[in-house]
Amino acid sequence: MRRPTSIAPPKGKLGVLMPGMGAVSTTFMAGVELVRTGCALPIGSVTQLATIRLGKRTERRSPLIREFVPLEKLDNLVFGGWDIFPDTAYEAARKAGVLEPPHLEQVKGLLSSIQPMTAAFDQAYVKKLDGPHVKKAKTKLDLAEAIKEDIQRFKKESGAQRLVMVWCGSTEVFQTPHLVHADPARFEKAMKENHPAIAPSMLYAWAAITSGVPFANGAPNLTVDIPALQELARGHNVPICGKDFKTGQTLLKTVLAPGFKARMLGLHGWFSTNILGNRDGEVLDDPDSFKTKEESKLGVLEYILQPQLYPELYGKLCHKVRINYYPPRGDNKEGWDNIDIFGWLGYPMQIKVDFLCRDSILAAPIVLDLVLFLDLAKRAGLAGIQEWLSFYWLRGEDLITHLGAEYYD
To answer: Taking every pair of C-alpha atoms in the chain, what is the biggest distance, in angstroms?
Structure first.
């Protein structure tokens, strides 16, 4: 990735478009409003709270990233999105049950004003969901063009000068790369022919990229992890990244695993199980959608541990992942891990982790950081896969979305 020679300053409003206006997106919007009105702190946001070291460690120069880098200000963010249900963002947030009533009431004005656009949706890709607020079109290309019209209309009506799109929708059924994903021409032909290898998330990504809008994929869907959309992104000078927000159980997994590797401690096995009860849990109750998530979760340890380099330590690792839909838990996911490690002379040890987390609370600041960093990347003239944002992602083959410590060193 080339280094930018200059970065254009942010001018005017920055529009944030989100396919899927459920728990994550409404928690993100509500949080931004609470922060910019001085009612809360942006905890979990690297762009808002983290510092960057300049010069030598002994010089003690560590300004906030947002004061050193020309990021957009929170006051200039405006929001929009799509959903299969017609509920306003306020109604959706209330039903999601993430935020307590006092917080919800403080942002009711903003959230009540945000009405979702009709979604491009096909139940064949998310079998456990269905809703009435959907687009009708003859072909998938027509649907994608309708999304492009939505993008332009939102930009005009909101007064936004620049846009970023972040997929906050559901996990789609498992897909593998197909011949129609090989290049833009075959991809667009497949859209015209309603090919089953073109999922709804890909329609949003194509619409964003061809509209010059940076795109991030917050789910483990294939989406931009294909040559056709990556080539389009480079050709349209659009930054893209993703897949799958690194939250919950996998956040801890990507904290612990590098520690084991750094100390050259071995791993016999890692068993992970989850219970969650939100819309995400309902979607993942379908085996085909679960397989998409499972593949994403299983791959992260291989990326970090590099068993091909350390076969004595990680070559025989048994890694299992389970997810169970349990409605009483709501958005408050619980993840249990049993980790079988071994140390000096091969002596075994065990680690048990029980993480009672709030999934959308962990995801919301990631959305904020991606919005601001992708806008920065666009203004810096960067295009295609943004490897430097891999810190936020669970995994992705060509996107290198969880790089090891060696990359950052």
So the answer is: 67
pLDDT of residue 2: 60
Identify which of 84, 97, 248 has the alpha carbon closest to the alpha carbon of residue 170.
84
Q: What angle do CA 103, 355, 373 make, to 5 degrees?
A: 60
Question: Which pair of tokens denotes residue 123?
Answer: 């139940």
Question: pLDDT by residue (tens digit) across 288-337?
Answer: 888 877 877 778 898 899 999 999 999 999 999 998 999 998 888 899 99
**At 325, which CATH number?**
3.30.360.10
| Chain segment 312-322, per-residue pLDDT in tens | 999 999 999 99
Shared domain for 52 and 125, answered yes or no, is yes
Among candidate residues 312, 336, 356, the one where a domain is terminated: 356
Instruction: Give the HSE-up count for residue 353: Cα atoms under 13 Å, Cβ half-sphere.
Output: 21
DSSP run (H or E) holding 179: none
How do residues 112-162 score in pLDDT, each as one tens digit? 999 999 999 999 999 999 999 999 999 999 999 999 999 999 999 999 999
Give the predicted TM-score (pTM) of the model: 0.92
The answer to whether residues 163 and 261 belong to one domain is no
On whether both 172 and 319 belong to a single domain, the answer is no
CATH at residue 203: 3.40.50.720
Q: Are 119 and 221 found together in one domain?
A: yes
Give the Å distances, CA to CA, from 128 to 136, 170, 285, 331.
20, 10, 8, 17
Same domain for 95 and 142, yes or no, is: yes
Cβ–Cβ < 8 Å for 306, 273: no
